[in-house]
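Quiz preparation item.
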């Protein structure tokens, strides 16, 4: 049976650079025979975590009736996730962060209840893709920590990140081409 790879886009710009990196990663996974799907968070209704603490004991979210239900199901079904978000104010976008915060129920499941979401099958893999206007590598650091925390909570193996800085550089094209190739390779690696 084919592996399933999910692309999650956190950029409000559905044809922007984060989207290009994500599509490249999904093409890479497809080259390895995976079934791929892209979900665009800005088109979905995902409410932020309300810190009700209900998931402390139930390991499920009381707000599950919004589009997060789709993400919860996919996290348990797929074999790999490529998460792509541009940097907004030194972190991931609000849409991305809302989705990640709603995964607190997986954190409870893994670290409090000590059960494995992928029990009985290959451990799924995750990769983080990002882009930023700034040429300074430090701009990605908070988002990398957030992405690592997300993949740890959902119990995926973190395979690394593909980052493209200085996106407002008029001479971006050759660096972008390299990043697209790296994203493709990262997508293939999700299927190893
Ligand atoms: C609200 C907002 C906040 C941003 N904050 C940062 C920032 O803190 N650091 C940075 O380097 N770029 C920042 N940027 C620039 C974006 O990261 C950059 O334009 C990126 O390439 C957009 O990717 P996209 O085309 O996939 O949406 C910001 C852009 C917006 C709209």
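Solution:
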């Amino acid at each position: 049976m084919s592996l399933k790879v999910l692309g999650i886009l956190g950029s409000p710009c559905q044809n922007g650079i984060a989207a290009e990196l994500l599509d490249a990663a999904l093409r890479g996974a497809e080259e390895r025979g995976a079934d791929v799907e892209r979900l665009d968070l800005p088109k979905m209704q995902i409410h932020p975590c309300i810190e009700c603490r209900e998931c402390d004991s139930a390991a499920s979210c009381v707000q599950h009736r919004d589009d997060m239900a789709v993400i919860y199901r996919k996290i348990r079904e797929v074999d790999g996730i490529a998460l792509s978000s541009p940097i907004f104010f030194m972190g991931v976008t609000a849409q991305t962060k809302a989705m990640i915060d709603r995964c607190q129920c997986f954190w409870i499941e893994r670290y409090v209840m000590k059960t494995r979401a992928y029990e009985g099958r290959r451990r799924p893999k995750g990769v983080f893709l990002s882009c930023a206007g700034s040429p300074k590598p430090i701009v990605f650091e908070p988002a990398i920590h957030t992405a690592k925390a997300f993949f740890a909570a959902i119990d995926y193996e973190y395979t690394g990140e593909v980052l493209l800085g200085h996106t407002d550089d008029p001479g971006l094209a050759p660096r972008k081409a390299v990043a697209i190739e790296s994203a493709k390779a990262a997508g293939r690696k999700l299927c190893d």
